Write the structure tokens for this entry.
Amino acid sequence: MKYIFTLLFVLSSTLIFAQEEKPTEEEETVIVTETDEGSEEVAFQVIEHVPVYYGCNEKLSNLELKNCMNRKVIKHVSSNFNADIANNLGLPDGRVRINVIFKINKEGKVIDIKARAPHPALEKEAERVISLLPDMDKPGIQRGKPVIVPYSLPIVFQIDNSSKKLTKKERRRLRRSQKN
């Protein structure tokens, strides 16, 4: 349970410190990249109309829609990510960071999920959770056309193995096995 609270805290603090600054005239240019399939790709931070997450009001401003989507994605990850997997992997105590990158295609579906973590089991779990995201109500729009929108999400939580206290019976067994 404390893993979930730590996960919620870290993910929500990411939103608090991620502020959108008003671009200067020089920064006003939006970089649009073209993928191998010839589709345009526009970063989530600079897109004209962000993808509309299921349950977010389409009438909100772009900034409010970004915040709504971020909150909904974080809530989804917090409620579906199984942080207990990390306890059985032998990872040291401390902060674990999983970087997840995925794209929202022109139809509003989540595609190309990639994760980097200190253990393959954590990568699989992150990919599993992101694959469960619902389709967007609307895809991202740039210059009046649907585009692919890359989205990155850090998943950070704390591992604390000190709560793994052995029972008396387990300690006796451990001592006996060490003597032999």
Q: What stands out?
A: The CA atoms of residues 113 and 127 lie 6 Å apart.
